[in-house]
Amino acid sequence: MNLVLQTKIEQIPQVMFYPVLEDNQAIVKLIESFDYEDQSAILTRLKTEKFVGKKSQVFVINEPELSVVLLGSGQNKKLNPEDWRVLAGQIIAYLQKYSAKNIGLVAQNWFKNNSNLELLGQSLAEGLLLASYEFIKYKKPDKNKINIIIENIFVEIDQVKKNKFQKGWDVGMLMSEATNLARDLVNEPAGVMTPTFLADTARQIAKDNSNITVKILDKEACQKLGMNAYLGVDQGSEQPLQFIHLIYKPARKSKEIIALVGKGITFDSGGLNIKTGDSMSQMKIDMAGSATVLGIFASIGKLKPNMEVHGIVAACENMPSGTALKPGDVISNMQGKTIEIGNTDAEGRVTLADSLAYAQKKGAKIIIDLATLTGACMIALGPEYTALFANDKDLARDLLKTADSTGEKIWQLPLPEEYKELNKSKIADINNIPNTRYGGAITAALFLQEFINQDIKWSHWDIAGPAYAEKPFNSYTPQGGVGFGVRTLLTWLLAK
Question: Which of 20, 254, 325, 452 is deepest in the core (most CB within 10 A)?
Protein backbone atom coordinates (compact mmCIF):
# COMPACT_ATOMS: atom_id res chain seq x y z
CA MET A 1 0.00 0.00 0.00
CA ASN A 2 1.70 3.16 -1.21
CA LEU A 3 0.41 6.26 0.56
CA VAL A 4 0.30 9.36 -1.66
CA LEU A 5 -0.48 12.63 0.15
CA GLN A 6 -1.49 15.52 -2.11
CA THR A 7 -3.07 18.94 -1.55
CA LYS A 8 -5.22 18.16 -4.57
CA ILE A 9 -5.51 14.63 -5.93
CA GLU A 10 -3.92 14.86 -9.37
CA GLN A 11 -4.29 11.29 -10.63
CA ILE A 12 -7.91 10.19 -10.74
CA PRO A 13 -8.26 7.05 -8.59
CA GLN A 14 -10.70 4.30 -9.51
CA VAL A 15 -12.78 4.73 -6.34
CA MET A 16 -13.25 7.60 -3.88
CA PHE A 17 -14.55 6.74 -0.42
CA TYR A 18 -16.56 9.17 1.72
CA PRO A 19 -17.78 8.42 5.26
CA VAL A 20 -21.11 9.94 6.23
CA LEU A 21 -22.95 10.48 9.47
CA GLU A 22 -26.50 9.25 9.90
CA ASP A 23 -27.79 12.59 8.62
CA ASN A 24 -29.97 12.66 5.51
CA GLN A 25 -29.60 16.40 4.90
CA ALA A 26 -25.81 16.24 5.08
CA ILE A 27 -25.77 13.25 2.71
CA VAL A 28 -27.92 15.09 0.16
CA LYS A 29 -25.71 18.16 0.48
CA LEU A 30 -22.58 16.04 -0.14
CA ILE A 31 -24.06 14.49 -3.29
CA GLU A 32 -25.14 17.92 -4.55
CA SER A 33 -21.53 19.13 -4.10
CA PHE A 34 -20.41 16.54 -6.70
CA ASP A 35 -22.50 18.40 -9.30
CA TYR A 36 -23.58 15.34 -11.30
CA GLU A 37 -25.66 15.86 -14.43
CA ASP A 38 -28.03 13.10 -13.32
CA GLN A 39 -28.16 14.39 -9.74
CA SER A 40 -31.93 14.07 -9.43
CA ALA A 41 -31.79 10.41 -10.48
CA ILE A 42 -29.06 9.75 -7.91
CA LEU A 43 -31.08 11.42 -5.16
CA THR A 44 -34.12 9.38 -6.17
CA ARG A 45 -32.08 6.20 -5.94
CA LEU A 46 -30.77 7.34 -2.55
CA LYS A 47 -34.37 7.50 -1.34
CA THR A 48 -35.35 4.20 -2.99
CA GLU A 49 -32.40 2.34 -1.46
CA LYS A 50 -33.17 3.96 1.91
CA PHE A 51 -29.57 5.00 2.41
CA VAL A 52 -29.45 7.26 5.46
CA GLY A 53 -25.91 6.60 6.71
CA LYS A 54 -26.66 3.75 9.09
CA LYS A 55 -23.71 1.63 10.15
CA SER A 56 -22.47 -0.70 7.37
CA GLN A 57 -24.74 0.90 4.75
CA VAL A 58 -23.01 1.54 1.41
CA PHE A 59 -24.20 3.77 -1.44
CA VAL A 60 -22.33 3.65 -4.75
CA ILE A 61 -22.35 6.22 -7.54
CA ASN A 62 -20.75 4.67 -10.61
CA GLU A 63 -19.38 7.00 -13.29
CA PRO A 64 -17.17 6.06 -16.27
CA GLU A 65 -13.97 7.57 -14.82
CA LEU A 66 -14.60 7.41 -11.09
CA SER A 67 -16.84 5.52 -8.68
CA VAL A 68 -17.86 7.28 -5.48
CA VAL A 69 -18.73 5.17 -2.43
CA LEU A 70 -20.53 6.61 0.58
CA LEU A 71 -19.91 4.63 3.77
CA GLY A 72 -22.50 4.79 6.52
CA SER A 73 -21.01 5.25 10.00
CA GLY A 74 -24.20 5.06 12.04
CA GLN A 75 -22.98 8.01 14.10
CA ASN A 76 -25.04 11.16 14.62
CA LYS A 77 -22.45 13.73 15.66
CA LYS A 78 -18.83 12.66 15.30
CA LEU A 79 -16.42 9.93 14.28
CA ASN A 80 -13.95 8.46 16.75
CA PRO A 81 -10.85 6.32 15.97
CA GLU A 82 -12.83 3.08 16.20
CA ASP A 83 -15.31 4.45 13.64
CA TRP A 84 -12.39 5.22 11.34
CA ARG A 85 -11.04 1.69 11.70
CA VAL A 86 -14.46 0.14 11.04
CA LEU A 87 -15.06 2.39 8.02
CA ALA A 88 -11.62 1.51 6.62
CA GLY A 89 -12.61 -2.13 7.04
CA GLN A 90 -15.73 -1.39 4.99
CA ILE A 91 -13.46 -0.14 2.21
CA ILE A 92 -11.76 -3.54 2.10
CA ALA A 93 -15.14 -5.29 2.13
CA TYR A 94 -16.17 -3.24 -0.91
CA LEU A 95 -12.90 -3.99 -2.70
CA GLN A 96 -13.56 -7.71 -2.27
CA LYS A 97 -16.38 -7.21 -4.79
CA TYR A 98 -14.96 -4.42 -6.94
CA SER A 99 -11.39 -4.71 -8.19
CA ALA A 100 -9.49 -1.43 -7.79
CA LYS A 101 -5.79 -0.78 -7.33
CA ASN A 102 -5.98 2.98 -6.82
CA ILE A 103 -8.34 4.47 -4.24
CA GLY A 104 -8.83 7.98 -2.94
CA LEU A 105 -9.84 9.70 0.31
CA VAL A 106 -10.39 13.35 1.18
CA ALA A 107 -9.07 13.81 4.71
CA GLN A 108 -11.45 16.68 5.45
CA ASN A 109 -14.45 14.44 4.79
CA TRP A 110 -13.17 11.89 7.32
CA PHE A 111 -12.89 14.33 10.23
CA LYS A 112 -16.60 14.69 11.14
CA ASN A 113 -15.93 16.72 14.30
CA ASN A 114 -12.73 14.84 15.11
CA SER A 115 -9.66 16.47 13.57
CA ASN A 116 -6.85 14.47 15.22
CA LEU A 117 -4.64 13.96 12.17
CA GLU A 118 -2.24 11.44 13.65
CA LEU A 119 -5.09 9.30 14.94
CA LEU A 120 -6.87 9.49 11.59
CA GLY A 121 -3.76 8.32 9.75
CA GLN A 122 -3.10 5.57 12.30
CA SER A 123 -6.71 4.35 12.40
CA LEU A 124 -7.05 4.23 8.61
CA ALA A 125 -3.82 2.26 8.28
CA GLU A 126 -4.97 -0.17 10.98
CA GLY A 127 -8.43 -0.65 9.51
CA LEU A 128 -7.17 -1.19 5.97
CA LEU A 129 -4.32 -3.56 6.79
CA LEU A 130 -6.12 -5.54 9.50
CA ALA A 131 -9.21 -5.97 7.31
CA SER A 132 -7.05 -7.19 4.41
CA TYR A 133 -5.66 -10.06 6.49
CA GLU A 134 -6.21 -13.64 5.34
CA PHE A 135 -4.62 -16.90 6.41
CA ILE A 136 -4.65 -18.90 3.18
CA LYS A 137 -1.24 -20.52 3.43
CA TYR A 138 -2.68 -24.03 3.10
CA LYS A 139 -5.45 -23.32 0.57
CA LYS A 140 -5.40 -23.59 -3.20
CA PRO A 141 -5.78 -20.24 -5.00
CA ASP A 142 -9.38 -19.35 -5.85
CA LYS A 143 -9.39 -18.26 -9.50
CA ASN A 144 -12.80 -16.60 -9.15
CA LYS A 145 -11.85 -14.51 -6.15
CA ILE A 146 -10.99 -10.83 -6.46
CA ASN A 147 -7.58 -10.33 -4.89
CA ILE A 148 -7.27 -7.06 -3.00
CA ILE A 149 -4.19 -5.33 -4.33
CA ILE A 150 -4.19 -1.67 -3.33
CA GLU A 151 -1.22 -0.10 -5.07
CA ASN A 152 -1.88 3.55 -4.22
CA ILE A 153 -4.00 5.34 -1.63
CA PHE A 154 -4.37 8.96 -2.64
CA VAL A 155 -5.24 11.25 0.29
CA GLU A 156 -6.22 14.85 -0.29
CA ILE A 157 -4.83 16.83 2.64
CA ASP A 158 -3.45 20.31 3.34
CA GLN A 159 0.30 20.66 2.95
CA VAL A 160 0.84 21.65 6.60
CA LYS A 161 -1.00 18.55 7.81
CA LYS A 162 0.88 15.95 5.78
CA ASN A 163 3.60 15.17 8.33
CA LYS A 164 1.18 14.42 11.16
CA PHE A 165 -0.96 12.20 8.97
CA GLN A 166 2.11 10.35 7.67
CA LYS A 167 3.43 9.85 11.21
CA GLY A 168 0.15 8.33 12.35
CA TRP A 169 -0.07 6.17 9.22
CA ASP A 170 3.42 4.74 9.81
CA VAL A 171 2.57 3.87 13.43
CA GLY A 172 -0.70 2.25 12.31
CA MET A 173 1.09 0.14 9.72
CA LEU A 174 3.65 -1.11 12.26
CA MET A 175 0.95 -1.96 14.81
CA SER A 176 -1.10 -3.78 12.18
CA GLU A 177 1.89 -5.74 10.91
CA ALA A 178 2.61 -6.78 14.49
CA THR A 179 -1.02 -7.83 14.98
CA ASN A 180 -1.05 -9.80 11.74
CA LEU A 181 2.10 -11.67 12.76
CA ALA A 182 0.38 -12.65 16.00
CA ARG A 183 -2.64 -13.77 13.95
CA ASP A 184 -0.40 -15.91 11.75
CA LEU A 185 1.09 -17.63 14.77
CA VAL A 186 -2.33 -18.40 16.27
CA ASN A 187 -3.67 -19.68 12.95
CA GLU A 188 -0.81 -22.12 12.31
CA PRO A 189 -1.72 -25.78 12.96
CA ALA A 190 -0.15 -27.32 16.05
CA GLY A 191 1.93 -29.67 13.92
CA VAL A 192 3.79 -26.58 12.69
CA MET A 193 3.37 -24.31 15.70
CA THR A 194 5.67 -26.18 18.05
CA PRO A 195 7.77 -24.67 20.85
CA THR A 196 10.72 -24.78 18.44
CA PHE A 197 8.74 -22.83 15.83
CA LEU A 198 7.96 -20.14 18.40
CA ALA A 199 11.62 -19.99 19.44
CA ASP A 200 12.75 -19.69 15.82
CA THR A 201 10.28 -16.83 15.33
CA ALA A 202 11.76 -15.07 18.34
CA ARG A 203 15.26 -15.55 16.97
CA GLN A 204 14.22 -14.03 13.64
CA ILE A 205 12.67 -11.03 15.39
CA ALA A 206 15.93 -10.41 17.27
CA LYS A 207 17.91 -10.82 14.06
CA ASP A 208 15.76 -8.20 12.34
CA ASN A 209 16.09 -5.63 15.15
CA SER A 210 19.44 -4.43 16.46
CA ASN A 211 17.85 -3.15 19.70
CA ILE A 212 16.37 -6.57 20.57
CA THR A 213 18.23 -9.58 21.94
CA VAL A 214 16.96 -13.08 22.62
CA LYS A 215 17.92 -15.93 24.89
CA ILE A 216 16.38 -19.40 24.50
CA LEU A 217 16.67 -21.69 27.52
CA ASP A 218 16.57 -25.45 26.97
CA LYS A 219 15.45 -28.13 29.42
CA GLU A 220 18.80 -28.35 31.17
CA ALA A 221 18.95 -24.59 31.74
CA CYS A 222 15.40 -24.61 33.12
CA GLN A 223 16.30 -27.46 35.48
CA LYS A 224 19.24 -25.44 36.85
CA LEU A 225 16.86 -22.54 37.55
CA GLY A 226 14.44 -24.84 39.37
CA MET A 227 11.53 -24.37 36.95
CA ASN A 228 9.89 -27.59 38.03
CA ALA A 229 6.35 -26.28 37.47
CA TYR A 230 7.09 -25.57 33.81
CA LEU A 231 9.09 -28.78 33.45
CA GLY A 232 6.23 -30.78 34.98
CA VAL A 233 3.72 -29.61 32.37
CA ASP A 234 6.19 -30.34 29.59
CA GLN A 235 7.18 -33.86 30.68
CA GLY A 236 4.40 -35.67 28.78
CA SER A 237 5.44 -34.28 25.39
CA GLU A 238 8.02 -35.46 22.88
CA GLN A 239 8.50 -31.89 21.60
CA PRO A 240 11.42 -30.12 23.33
CA LEU A 241 10.43 -27.16 25.50
CA GLN A 242 11.75 -23.70 24.62
CA PHE A 243 11.85 -20.92 27.23
CA ILE A 244 11.98 -17.65 25.30
CA HIS A 245 13.37 -14.42 26.74
CA LEU A 246 13.33 -11.36 24.45
CA ILE A 247 14.78 -8.01 25.58
CA TYR A 248 14.17 -4.62 23.95
CA LYS A 249 16.45 -1.82 25.14
CA PRO A 250 15.78 1.84 24.30
CA ALA A 251 18.53 4.27 23.29
CA ARG A 252 18.62 5.70 26.82
CA LYS A 253 18.80 3.54 29.92
CA SER A 254 15.37 2.87 31.36
CA LYS A 255 14.55 3.48 35.03
CA GLU A 256 12.41 0.36 35.31
CA ILE A 257 11.80 -2.87 33.43
CA ILE A 258 8.44 -3.91 32.05
CA ALA A 259 7.83 -7.60 31.36
CA LEU A 260 5.22 -8.98 28.98
CA VAL A 261 4.56 -12.64 29.72
CA GLY A 262 2.65 -14.83 27.29
CA LYS A 263 1.22 -18.29 27.92
CA GLY A 264 2.94 -20.56 25.40
CA ILE A 265 1.12 -23.91 25.38
CA THR A 266 1.43 -24.74 21.69
CA PHE A 267 -1.10 -27.55 22.04
CA ASP A 268 -3.27 -28.40 25.01
CA SER A 269 -4.70 -31.93 25.01
CA GLY A 270 -5.57 -31.57 28.68
CA GLY A 271 -2.83 -33.98 29.68
CA LEU A 272 -4.04 -37.06 31.55
CA ASN A 273 -7.24 -35.14 32.34
CA ILE A 274 -7.73 -35.28 28.60
CA LYS A 275 -10.21 -32.99 26.88
CA THR A 276 -13.13 -34.25 24.82
CA GLY A 277 -12.79 -34.06 21.04
CA ASP A 278 -14.82 -30.86 20.66
CA SER A 279 -12.94 -29.14 23.46
CA MET A 280 -9.59 -30.15 21.98
CA SER A 281 -10.22 -29.18 18.34
CA GLN A 282 -9.08 -25.57 18.67
CA MET A 283 -6.36 -26.05 21.28
CA LYS A 284 -3.71 -24.92 18.84
CA ILE A 285 -4.75 -21.42 19.98
CA ASP A 286 -3.57 -21.99 23.57
CA MET A 287 -0.37 -20.13 22.73
CA ALA A 288 -2.22 -16.92 21.77
CA GLY A 289 -0.69 -15.04 24.71
CA SER A 290 2.79 -15.82 23.42
CA ALA A 291 1.70 -14.80 19.91
CA THR A 292 0.74 -11.38 21.27
CA VAL A 293 4.12 -11.00 22.96
CA LEU A 294 6.05 -11.98 19.82
CA GLY A 295 3.85 -9.73 17.70
CA ILE A 296 4.65 -6.79 19.98
CA PHE A 297 8.37 -7.49 19.71
CA ALA A 298 8.16 -7.65 15.92
CA SER A 299 7.38 -3.90 15.87
CA ILE A 300 8.65 -2.57 19.18
CA GLY A 301 12.18 -2.18 17.82
CA LYS A 302 10.87 0.24 15.16
CA LEU A 303 8.33 2.07 17.33
CA LYS A 304 11.02 2.59 20.00
CA PRO A 305 9.24 3.22 23.32
CA ASN A 306 11.35 4.70 26.12
CA MET A 307 11.08 1.72 28.47
CA GLU A 308 13.12 -1.47 28.63
CA VAL A 309 10.75 -4.30 27.81
CA HIS A 310 11.20 -8.04 28.32
CA GLY A 311 9.11 -10.65 26.53
CA ILE A 312 8.86 -14.00 28.29
CA VAL A 313 7.29 -17.22 27.00
CA ALA A 314 7.51 -20.69 28.55
CA ALA A 315 6.70 -22.68 25.41
CA CYS A 316 5.75 -26.35 25.62
CA GLU A 317 2.94 -28.82 24.89
CA ASN A 318 0.52 -30.39 27.37
CA MET A 319 0.27 -34.01 26.26
CA PRO A 320 -0.79 -37.36 27.79
CA SER A 321 1.81 -40.12 27.94
CA GLY A 322 3.50 -42.52 30.32
CA THR A 323 5.73 -39.68 31.52
CA ALA A 324 2.99 -37.07 31.87
CA LEU A 325 2.18 -35.19 35.04
CA LYS A 326 -0.49 -36.99 37.09
CA PRO A 327 -3.44 -35.58 39.03
CA GLY A 328 -2.38 -35.37 42.66
CA ASP A 329 1.30 -34.75 41.90
CA VAL A 330 3.08 -31.96 43.77
CA ILE A 331 5.64 -29.79 42.00
CA SER A 332 7.39 -26.53 42.86
CA ASN A 333 8.14 -23.39 40.90
CA MET A 334 11.50 -21.61 40.85
CA GLN A 335 10.51 -19.61 43.96
CA GLY A 336 10.13 -22.88 45.86
CA LYS A 337 6.35 -22.67 46.21
CA THR A 338 4.65 -26.04 45.96
CA ILE A 339 1.67 -26.70 43.71
CA GLU A 340 -0.71 -29.63 43.96
CA ILE A 341 -1.95 -30.68 40.53
CA GLY A 342 -5.68 -31.05 41.03
CA ASN A 343 -6.23 -31.21 37.28
CA THR A 344 -3.64 -31.51 34.51
CA ASP A 345 -5.88 -29.44 32.21
CA ALA A 346 -5.23 -26.35 34.35
CA GLU A 347 -1.67 -26.30 33.05
CA GLY A 348 -1.25 -22.76 31.72
CA ARG A 349 -1.28 -21.19 35.17
CA VAL A 350 1.35 -23.72 36.27
CA THR A 351 3.80 -22.73 33.51
CA LEU A 352 3.06 -19.06 34.24
CA ALA A 353 4.10 -19.63 37.86
CA ASP A 354 7.66 -20.02 36.59
CA SER A 355 7.38 -17.35 33.86
CA LEU A 356 6.23 -14.74 36.39
CA ALA A 357 8.94 -15.76 38.85
CA TYR A 358 11.58 -15.51 36.12
CA ALA A 359 10.38 -12.04 35.09
CA GLN A 360 10.78 -10.80 38.67
CA LYS A 361 14.21 -12.38 38.95
CA LYS A 362 15.25 -10.39 35.87
CA GLY A 363 14.26 -7.13 37.55
CA ALA A 364 10.80 -6.46 36.12
CA LYS A 365 8.79 -4.05 38.27
CA ILE A 366 5.71 -4.01 36.04
CA ILE A 367 4.41 -7.30 34.66
CA ILE A 368 1.52 -7.96 32.31
CA ASP A 369 0.67 -11.54 31.44
CA LEU A 370 -1.67 -12.69 28.68
CA ALA A 371 -3.17 -16.16 28.65
CA THR A 372 -6.03 -18.16 27.19
CA LEU A 373 -6.55 -19.29 30.74
CA THR A 374 -10.19 -20.17 31.47
CA GLY A 375 -13.44 -21.06 29.78
CA ALA A 376 -15.05 -19.41 32.80
CA CYS A 377 -13.91 -16.05 31.46
CA MET A 378 -15.87 -16.66 28.25
CA ILE A 379 -18.94 -17.68 30.24
CA ALA A 380 -18.70 -14.40 32.16
CA LEU A 381 -17.83 -12.00 29.34
CA GLY A 382 -18.57 -13.78 26.05
CA PRO A 383 -16.27 -14.21 23.04
CA GLU A 384 -15.12 -10.62 22.41
CA TYR A 385 -14.03 -9.39 25.85
CA THR A 386 -10.82 -9.95 27.78
CA ALA A 387 -10.93 -10.05 31.57
CA LEU A 388 -8.35 -7.79 33.16
CA PHE A 389 -7.13 -8.28 36.72
CA ALA A 390 -4.65 -5.96 38.41
CA ASN A 391 -3.11 -5.42 41.83
CA ASP A 392 -2.60 -1.70 41.14
CA LYS A 393 -5.44 0.75 40.45
CA ASP A 394 -3.35 3.18 38.38
CA LEU A 395 -2.03 0.40 36.16
CA ALA A 396 -5.53 -0.96 35.60
CA ARG A 397 -6.88 2.51 34.80
CA ASP A 398 -4.14 3.21 32.24
CA LEU A 399 -4.57 -0.14 30.51
CA LEU A 400 -8.36 0.16 30.34
CA LYS A 401 -8.15 3.71 28.99
CA THR A 402 -5.66 2.61 26.33
CA ALA A 403 -7.81 -0.35 25.30
CA ASP A 404 -10.77 2.00 24.89
CA SER A 405 -8.75 4.06 22.39
CA THR A 406 -7.65 1.02 20.35
CA GLY A 407 -11.08 -0.61 20.14
CA GLU A 408 -9.96 -3.76 21.97
CA LYS A 409 -12.61 -4.81 24.48
CA ILE A 410 -11.41 -5.31 28.05
CA TRP A 411 -13.40 -5.51 31.30
CA GLN A 412 -11.91 -5.49 34.78
CA LEU A 413 -12.76 -8.26 37.22
CA PRO A 414 -11.84 -8.26 40.95
CA LEU A 415 -9.17 -10.04 42.95
CA PRO A 416 -11.13 -10.66 46.18
CA GLU A 417 -8.95 -11.58 49.12
CA GLU A 418 -11.61 -13.88 50.56
CA TYR A 419 -11.58 -16.07 47.43
CA LYS A 420 -7.95 -17.08 48.00
CA GLU A 421 -9.23 -19.79 50.35
CA LEU A 422 -10.74 -21.55 47.32
CA ASN A 423 -7.27 -22.42 45.95
CA LYS A 424 -5.99 -24.00 49.14
CA SER A 425 -4.37 -27.44 49.09
CA LYS A 426 -4.18 -29.90 51.99
CA ILE A 427 -0.71 -31.10 51.00
CA ALA A 428 0.93 -28.16 49.16
CA ASP A 429 1.12 -24.37 49.26
CA ILE A 430 -1.60 -24.06 46.62
CA ASN A 431 -3.79 -26.18 44.32
CA ASN A 432 -3.94 -25.47 40.60
CA ILE A 433 -7.75 -25.74 40.63
CA PRO A 434 -10.23 -24.31 43.13
CA ASN A 435 -12.58 -26.34 45.31
CA THR A 436 -15.62 -24.78 43.61
CA ARG A 437 -16.97 -24.58 40.07
CA TYR A 438 -17.79 -20.88 40.43
CA GLY A 439 -15.64 -17.83 39.70
CA GLY A 440 -13.11 -19.80 37.67
CA ALA A 441 -11.52 -16.80 35.95
CA ILE A 442 -11.07 -15.08 39.31
CA THR A 443 -9.60 -18.07 41.13
CA ALA A 444 -7.17 -18.62 38.23
CA ALA A 445 -6.02 -15.00 38.51
CA LEU A 446 -5.67 -15.39 42.27
CA PHE A 447 -3.52 -18.47 41.68
CA LEU A 448 -1.15 -16.37 39.55
CA GLN A 449 -1.08 -13.58 42.12
CA GLU A 450 0.43 -16.02 44.62
CA PHE A 451 3.65 -15.86 42.59
CA ILE A 452 3.80 -12.05 42.42
CA ASN A 453 5.91 -10.21 45.03
CA GLN A 454 4.24 -7.36 46.90
CA ASP A 455 6.39 -4.62 45.36
CA ILE A 456 5.47 -5.61 41.79
CA LYS A 457 2.73 -3.93 39.73
CA TRP A 458 0.98 -6.74 37.89
CA SER A 459 -1.93 -7.24 35.54
CA HIS A 460 -3.30 -10.53 34.24
CA TRP A 461 -5.32 -10.67 31.01
CA ASP A 462 -7.50 -13.71 30.41
CA ILE A 463 -7.83 -13.60 26.61
CA ALA A 464 -9.66 -16.92 26.23
CA GLY A 465 -12.52 -15.22 24.36
CA PRO A 466 -10.96 -12.82 21.85
CA ALA A 467 -7.80 -14.84 21.15
CA TYR A 468 -9.70 -16.45 18.27
CA ALA A 469 -12.77 -15.19 16.41
CA GLU A 470 -15.15 -17.98 15.48
CA LYS A 471 -16.86 -15.37 13.29
CA PRO A 472 -15.74 -11.81 12.43
CA PHE A 473 -15.86 -9.41 15.37
CA ASN A 474 -16.13 -6.36 13.10
CA SER A 475 -15.13 -5.15 9.64
CA TYR A 476 -11.40 -5.33 10.38
CA THR A 477 -11.25 -8.47 12.57
CA PRO A 478 -11.97 -11.50 10.37
CA GLN A 479 -12.55 -15.07 11.50
CA GLY A 480 -9.44 -16.72 12.95
CA GLY A 481 -6.58 -15.58 15.15
CA VAL A 482 -7.17 -12.04 16.42
CA GLY A 483 -3.77 -10.90 17.71
CA PHE A 484 -5.59 -9.47 20.70
CA GLY A 485 -3.67 -7.03 22.87
CA VAL A 486 -0.89 -6.17 20.45
CA ARG A 487 -2.13 -2.68 19.58
CA THR A 488 -3.28 -1.84 23.11
CA LEU A 489 0.02 -2.81 24.73
CA LEU A 490 2.14 -1.13 22.06
CA THR A 491 0.08 2.05 22.47
CA TRP A 492 0.45 1.83 26.26
CA LEU A 493 4.22 1.33 26.01
CA LEU A 494 4.59 4.31 23.68
CA ALA A 495 2.77 6.50 26.19
CA LYS A 496 5.08 5.52 29.10
Answer: 20
Query: pTM (2 decimals)?
Result: 0.96
CATH architecture of 188-465: 3-Layer(aba) Sandwich (3.40)
* Pairing label, strands 338-340, 330-332: antiparallel
* C-alpha–C-alpha distance, residues 44 and 243, integer Å: 64
Handedness of CA 183, 257, 387, 269 (dihedral sign): positive
Nearest CA to 187 out of 136, 263, 119 is that of: 136
Q: Based on the residue annotation, tell me whether 85 is a catalytic residue of this protein.
A: no
Per-residue pLDDT of the chain (496 residues; tens, 9 = 90+): 899 999 998 888 999 999 999 999 999 999 999 989 899 999 999 999 999 999 999 999 998 889 999 999 999 999 999 999 999 999 999 999 888 999 999 999 999 889 899 999 999 999 999 999 999 999 998 888 878 889 999 999 999 999 999 999 999 999 999 999 999 999 999 999 999 999 999 999 999 999 999 999 999 999 999 999 999 999 999 999 999 999 999 999 888 999 999 999 999 999 999 999 888 989 999 999 999 999 999 999 999 999 999 999 999 999 999 999 999 999 999 999 999 999 999 999 999 999 999 999 999 999 999 999 999 999 999 999 999 999 999 999 999 999 999 999 999 999 999 999 999 999 999 999 999 999 999 999 999 999 999 999 999 999 999 999 999 999 999 999 999 999 999 999 999 8
Query: Which alpha helices (DSSP H) does 375-450 contain, by range?
Result: 375-381, 393-406, 440-449
Q: Which of 78, 62, 66 is nearest to 19 (CA)?
A: 78
- Do 188-465 and 2-172 have the same topology in CATH? no
Candidate list 167, 219, 275, 409, residue with the active-site label: 275
| Gap between the terminal Cα atoms of the chain | 30
* Annotated domain spans of the chain: 2-172, 188-465
Q: Is 11 exposed, middle or buried (0-12, 13-18, 19+ CB in 10 A)?
A: exposed
Pick the catalytic residue from 112, 183, 284, 349. 349
Q: Exposed/middle/buried for 240, CB within 10 Å: 0-12, 13-18, 19+?
A: middle
How many residues appear in the chain?
496
Residues 305 and 227: their CA atoms lie apart, in Å, by 31
In 306-363, where do the E strands start and end? 308-318, 330-332, 338-340
- Alpha-carbon distance of 231 to 350, in angstroms, equals 10
